[in-house]
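Lay summary. Proteins are chains of building blocks that fold into shapes, and those shapes determine what they do. In this project we predict the shape from the chain. Here is one chain we studied, written as its sequence of building blocks.
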Amino acid sequence: MSELLRERRYCGGSQATNQRPWPETVRLTAVGHCCAPVSDHYVYVLRCADNTLYTGYTTDPDRRVAEHNAGDGAKYTRGRTPVELVHLEVYESRSTAQSREYEIKSLSREQKESLIS
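And here is the predicted shape, written in a compact code that computers can read:
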């Protein structure tokens, strides 16, 4: 697997801090301005226990992955737990994030594997 982006820069007034809110194996792709962590919208890709990939949208990736693993997530992932977060993209607007979710869902398996590697 290629080198993964493990840090995201959050701006707080005149001082910026680095945080690692995601597991080290997750690629976080920041799209847009970095100064709006409260209103972030995320598109994520999960690898299920049967090695299939699931793509979704959320405003709270930690909560959403926990829901999937608890069996409270999407119907698709309920019988395929545990799931692992393998790709995460952040957007400033819901519409942009959901458009990207649709794009990813339209990709072939090979293209998705290329995206997450």
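What the prediction tells us: The radius of gyration is 14 Å.
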